[in-house]
């Protein structure tokens, strides 16, 4: 399991801010179950659903931003888990961009690739790999959009969510896998020991133009997600 505990450029759990958070929360003193539960809940609800300057940014930057999406939240989650000696890996996919409609709008949605690079963290717990995709969406945001998801292809999608049954969403971790975007998966890209390897190969914002557009527009996108979170959805 040592390969799944290593620090990397992205999983920078030795960064002072991450070490300080781990110490303040007392996570190292907990059982493995409680470590995973509390760290998962922290990243899910204290790091709001939103968009960073890219997919391949260090965990310490995600923590400083205070928000993240599937890829960046997964990186921070891995750093906190590995920093408390919980083995974890990354599982990569492509997902249909239709599920982002509502969270992404206008020119940002137009320029988003049809298939978006997506990843979740898998943690080793009680002899098996457990997926923690549910970490992406915080409770206040979910509360506002759950009843507004659109019926599509036998499930429900929209606002950064893709789920089979919108009436039974439960993102609390109780020892089993949690999912919130998996219904829109179009291709499995495999398992990677480290996110650095995955995002070097697959990345939503490769290229100068895409990076420029994202950095130009992401603050507006995050303001919109905050409006949604406060109950300001229109239509």
TrEMBL record:
Pfam families listed in its UniProt record: Transglut_core (PF01841)
Domain of life: Bacteria
InterPro entries: Papain-like_cys_pep_sf, Transglutaminase-like
Domain Transglutaminase-like span(s) in chain numbering: 62-136
PANTHER family referenced in this protein's UniProt entry, alphabetically: BLR5614 PROTEIN-RELATED, CONSERVED INTEGRAL MEMBRANE PROTEIN
Protein name from the UniProt record: Transglutaminase
Organism: Paenibacillus aceti
């Amino acid at each position: 399991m040592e390969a799944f505990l290593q620090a990397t450029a992205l999983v920078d759990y030795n960064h002072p801010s991450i070490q300080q958070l781990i110490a303040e929360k007392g996570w190292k003193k907990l059982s493995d179950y409680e470590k995973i539960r509390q760290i998962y809940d922290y990243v899910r609800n204290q790091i709001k659903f939103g968009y960073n300057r890219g997919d391949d940014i260090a965990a310490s930057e995600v923590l400083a931003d205070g928000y993240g999406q599937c890829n960046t939240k997964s990186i921070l989650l891995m750093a906190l888990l590995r920093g408390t000696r919980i083995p974890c890996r990354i599982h990569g996919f492509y997902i249909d961009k239709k599920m982002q409609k509502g969270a992404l709008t206008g020119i940002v949605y137009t320029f988003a690739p049809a298939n978006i690079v997506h990843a979740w963290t898998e943690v080793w717990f009680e002899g098996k790999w457990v997926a923690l995709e549910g970490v992406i969406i915080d409770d206040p945001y979910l509360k506002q959009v759950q009843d507004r998801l659109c019926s599509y292809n036998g499930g429900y999608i929209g606002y950064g969510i893709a789920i089979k049954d919108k009436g039974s969403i439960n993102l609390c971790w109780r020892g089993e896998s949690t999912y919130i975007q998996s219904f829109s998966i179009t291709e499995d890209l495999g398992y990677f020991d480290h996110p650095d390897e995955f995002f070097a190969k697959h990345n939503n914002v490769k290229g100068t133009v895409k990076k420029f557009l994202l950095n130009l527009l992401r603050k507006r996108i995050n303001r919109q997600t905050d409006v949604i979170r406060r109950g300001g959805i229109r239509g």
